[in-house]
Amino acid sequence: MPNSAAIYPGSFDPVTYGHVDLIKRASSIFSEVVVAVANNMQKQPLFNTQERIAMLKEATSGLSNIRIEIFDGLVVDYARESKINVLIRGLRMVSDFEYEFQMALTNRRLAEEIETVFLMPSEGYSFLSSSLIKEAASLGADLTSFVPNSVADRLKKKLNK
Ligand code: ADP
């Protein structure tokens, strides 16, 4: 294998147990997993980049071959600069497929040498999304089975719950 590292890009606003499940799976396949947090304000994240990175660091502190980084702009440009040619994305349900398929093929057109690898989470996490968790948090739901406690605490604080 010419380069056995992989990049897992996303918003992680905030990280959930679904993301953590994927990071663990990827870390057992690749020598290093770079979790790349998009510094993309167009998506109007609830948490700023530094907060999202802090939560990811806490959530992955038990894993040794993980690096958390920020990236701006196109993920393929970031991958080329990092000299890593594998992107990890998650597929939860069929509903993810269309968007992920379009994005993978667009990225392939932009950078032929970069391959997207899809991983599926444990079925127990396949319904989890950051946006649903933010909604549940805003309504005061118990988040303990969705996100690490540190994330639940930050959500409560941010949303005054
Ligand atoms: P983005 O804004 O790039 O979609 P996300 O943080 O929402 O960023 O997701 C990053 C990647 O993680 C996506 O490929 C998404 O499908 C995947 N993902 C999100 N939640 C889960 C989950 N519960 N299980 C598996 N993969 C997930």
Q: Can you offer a commentary on this structure?
A:
The chain has 161 residues and is of the alpha/beta class. The chain has a single domain (5-159), classed as 3-Layer(aba) Sandwich (Rossmann fold). Helices cover 42% and strands 18% of the residues. Strands 1-2-3 form a 3-stranded parallel sheet, sandwiched between helices. A two-stranded parallel sheet has the order 4-5. The longest helix is centred in the middle third of the chain and has 17 residues, at 94-110. It is globular, with a radius of gyration of 15 Å. The model has no long low-confidence stretch (mean pLDDT 95).
Reported CATH architecture: 3-Layer(aba) Sandwich
Distance between the termini: 48 Å
Q: What percentage of residues falls in helices of 4 or more residues?
A: 40-55%
Strand content: 15-25%
Low-confidence stretches: none
Radius of gyration: 15 Å
What's the structural domain tally? 1
CATH class: Alpha Beta
Specify the number of helices: 6
- What oligomeric state do the depicted chains represent? single chain
Strand line-up in the sheet with most strands: 1-2-3
Give the biggest beta sheet: 3 strands, parallel
Describe what is shown at a glance.
The chain has 161 residues and is of the alpha/beta class.
Entry keywords:
5 strands; single chain; 161 residues; binds adenosine-5'-diphosphate; two-stranded parallel sheet; alpha/beta; Rossmann fold; globular; three-stranded parallel β-sheet
